[in-house]
Structure formats: structure tokens, C-alpha cells
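From the shared-data thread, chain only:
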Amino acid sequence: MSPSFPADMNTPAYVLDVAALKRNLATAARIKREAGVKILLATKAWAMPAVFALMRDTLDGTTASGLYEARMGAEEFGKEVHVYAPAYTPEEVDELARIADHIYFNTPSQIARFLPAVKRAGKHAGIRVNPGFSYVSLGGDLYNPCAPGSRFGTPADQLDAVPWDDIHTIHTHALCEATDAGSVGLIEHVAQNFAPYLRRVRCVNFGGGHFVNKPGYDVARLIAALRAFRATYPHLEVILEPGAGLVVDTGYLVATVLDTMRNGADIAILDTSASTHMPDVLEVPYTPGIIGAGEPGEKAHTYVLGGKTCMTGDVIGTYSFDRPLEVGDRLVFTDMMQYSFVKNTTFNGTPLPDLAVLEEDGRYRVLRSYGYDEFRRRLG
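Structure, as C-alpha cells:
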């Protein structure tokens, strides 16, 4: 069923569906309640501070991939702040020691450099471990934290160099859009292969990539695996930190057809862009869904949809429609909350889309609009 948007709305626009977000949060609440774990929001995948209040009662805090995300979590979400980066500068650690509760390090050498600052601040230090296990359903090695040669996490054969008496948390992010098979596989792999280290810490963080709200994900199986892990290691606090898994299928990118043409195929040019507004379309690559559209040739009229930038490869995909596309037609791309506006650029001076919410009662509310000033501000 297509959502209802105002006829005079500005496009392009990212629109959060509040009802869908609340449904996803109910899944997180169930996992917390039945498995006895904490769940954090990974803001690298989605961060809309204006609606953090909707999530605050369910989630335990945020997890960041750097200083600025950590600061946003502290100032805007207001609960626990966890942070991991492959490396830090001394200035970043000094600031993080002030605002973050848990700082995860990538290597023993980073711990050796920065542990004194973390201890002086009374904060918790963690180590990211490369568990040698991964489950990635999208993007192959592009999004595989445990790909050969990965810079993420200390390999198992180097863990004896870690000062375990000073380590609070083992962090084992190894998934991307994983089904329950990936989540359970990681939990069981860590339980079986890292027991000596698990016994020396107080917490394990199984990272993100748990696609708990995607149709077909067996949440009960995840809960059973978490309960079994906690029974084996009752002294450990257990954390999950999904980002995309909390906001999958909770919103849209609404675009408008600007022109149509033909060059060997019918082409429609939109006021949005894969390059600037949907970067994963090109990076993964993948073809996003459009409400009411079909596969090429499935419906009567097939179009290649292109963005408005000067990049030749700025092509969103090929779709079919029941009738010919016309200038002014509105297209609604689905599953457009995760890894979308957090990765936007203003290449070519392309305007950033509005950020908006669709309330449960049908009201459409614009959170922020962007214009020339945002483009100019980035250029010095």
C-alpha cells in the first residue's frame, strides 16, 4: 500500500514512517526483554536526532564510528555512548574520554597508547576482535568486516598481546544484513572459540548487521542463542548494536520525474540521484524498490531511471510501469532510511533532499530543508 503524501510536498525528500519505526522498535524491545541483553543504535547507519525521543525508551544508547557521532549520541540521545574506530588521534581520545562511556580500540598498540587516558577518565576500554567469522548478504567483501586483509579488529593469533586485566568489553562486529543464521552463527562461534578471553572481560558486544526486522528473520532463534550464550557466560553483559536492522523498511525517498527521452531505451531523469542521494545503489550495487513499479519488461512501459548529476553512471536502475512516465510524476523509493542521508553529498551542487516524517495520523512534517547555503558551506 502506497503512503499518502501532500500534493504540494517538495521533492526529493526522505520520509520516515513513524508507525513502521515503532513496529521495528517493538522487535528490539522483545529481544531485550526475552534475551536479557542491551541494544544500541548504530548511528553510522541512521541518525535523525529529531526523532531520537521515539527510540530512547526502548534502546540503551548509541554506538558511534568516530568522535562526531559519539558527541551527537551524548548530546542528542542522552544514554550510553559507545565508540569504535580503526584508529584515533590523541586529541580524539581526549575528547572521547570526556563524552563516551565505552571506547573500543582496534589493536593492542592503540590500547598501549591511549589506555592511560581512558583509565584517568574512569571510562571502559574495549578491544575489537576479528573473529574469523562473517555473514554478509549484500556487497560481498566491500561490507565484510572479516574479509582477507581487513583492517577491522585484532586477529585471534595476536590477542595474547592485549592487556586483558584492563579490558572491559570484547567487540566482534562481523555481519552485514545477516539473517538469523548469521547472527546465531557468530554468537556460537565466539562462544566456542574465544572462551579464555570471554572469561577475563565483563561484556561482549556482538556488533551490528543483525537484520532483525527483515521478513524471514527468525527472532526467536536469535533470542534462544543469546540466552544460551548468557547461560554459558553468566558474568557477561551482552550487547547488540544494529543500525540498519532497526530502521529497515521504515521510510522512503520521494522523487519527481523531470524529463523523459529516448536513446536506445526510454529514459526518465529524476530530481534525485544515485550518486548523491542513494550511494549504496552504486557501491553495492543494488536496485531499490519503487512502489507500483515492476521488473524490466514486467509491465507495459520500461524506463531507465537516471539522476540529475553530470556523472554518466548516475543510473538508479531499470523499472517498468503500467503507463508512460510523464514530467511531474512522483516515484516513491522504498527502504530509504538505512545508509542514505547519512552518506549524502552535494556533488554538482545537487540539492540535499528534505528530511521529513509521516506521522501515525497521516500528518506530513518537514524536519529540515536544505538549499544553496548547505552546498556553499561545505566548500570553504
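The longest helix spans residues 18-35.
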